[in-house]
Amino acid sequence: MKHITHIADTPWIPHQIEGSRGFEFIFNILGGEYTDAYSMDIVRVAEGGYSPQHIDPDNHAFYIISGEADIDIADSCHRVRSGAIVRIPRGVVHAVRNVGDGELVLLTIYDPPRVRKSKDGVVLPVDHAEAI
Question: For 60-113, how does the pLDDT look when each residue is reduced to its tens digit (9 = 90+)?
Fold first, then answer.
């Protein structure tokens, strides 16, 4: 197990769900090699990037590392910036929009852990790994 991981040494993987724009991920920055209780990704959203409203089957939380975003949760919109923690319960519709002047970077924590696969040493979401 690696005790230290630095994002400068880890590749960003472009990954879009239908209707999204500008998302890159470092998948499983902390995952099954460490715990089976949760997993973590780092997400970078380009200026003007967004996700459509969607529903996920797991609880997840965002810690906003840098930037500013509007995050829709159910029928409310929340303006968040660096230092905020956002909780998204499983089954609740949500969306993310980068409304800042630069990139938005956030740490995403999933409970239960998201299933990932590794291809050529790069961790990818299951649907992305199968498409390559």
Answer: 999 999 999 999 999 999 999 999 999 999 999 999 999 999 999 999 999 999
| Rounded Cα gap, residues 66 and 49, in angstroms | 14
Sorted by sequence, the CB contacts under 8 Å of residue 74 that are 6+ apart come out as 92, 93, 94
Instruction: Decide: 83 and 65 in contact? Cβ < 8 Å.
Output: no
Domains in the chain, CATH or no CATH each: 23-131 (2.60.120.10)
C-alpha to C-alpha distance for 76 and 67, rounded to whole angstroms: 20
The whole-angstrom separation of Cα 47 and Cα 58 is 27
Taking only the tens place, the pLDDT of each residue in 61-74 is: 999 999 999 999 99
DSSP string, 65-91: EESEEEEEETTEEEEEETT-EEEE-TT
What 1-7 contacts at long range (C-beta under 8 Å, 24+ apart), as own/partner pairs, is 1/33, 1/34, 2/33, 5/29, 5/30, 7/42
Q: What is the CA radius of gyration of the chain?
A: 14
